[in-house]
Write a structure and sequence with these properties.
By secondary structure, the protein is an alpha+beta fold. It has one domain: Pnp Oxidase, Chain A, CATH 2.30.110. The protein is built from four helices and nine strands. The longest helix has 8 residues. It is globular. Bound molecules: flavin mononucleotide (FMN).
Amino acid sequence: MEFKTDIFKTFDKKWALLTAGDKEKFNTMTISWGGLGTLWNKPVATVYVRTSRYTHEFMDDNEYFTISFYPEQYKKELGVLGSKSGRDIDKMNNSGLSAKALDKSMTFEEAEVTLVCKKLFKQELSVANMPEEIAESLYSGDAPHDMYIGEVVEIIG
Ligand SMILES: Cc1cc2nc3c(=O)[nH]c(=O)nc-3n(C[C@H](O)[C@H](O)[C@H](O)COP(=O)(O)O)c2cc1C
């Protein structure tokens, strides 16, 4: 399996969708923070999800999640998926993207690349352990982020 990318720009500039669940019940949200690397001799992807996100529940309830990347033309759709919550609207059926069921998780037909990840680790990003200016600018009044690390078990696309 091969995934050619500029590791630093892929998340930040391209955005991605983080999706968890199955075709009966799933949720997705836009992410731009994340990383790809190695842990415990496995290829891994790391994402950061505020505990207030609806997607957070799906990350906790499912063993697998996907990270999918899209061509520029879908930026508007990703903008909506990154500003509306699946708690408030039927985001999955009104996103403008076509959901695609995989063996272990979900992605969308329009994705250029989908990383299928098996959850390995989760931990809260403790505000006490981060620089003060970050804590103040990003966490005063906002829910903390949980970090999820998943083994990349399949690359589709
Ligand atoms: C470009 C962009 C990047 C985002 N990155 C993250 C992220 O890395 N982590 C996070 O928790 N929320 C991130 N968000 C916010 C969520 O996508 C947004 O709150 C979304 O509406 C949550 O949906 P949900 O409640 O259905 O899970 C981002 C939003 C945008 C537009």
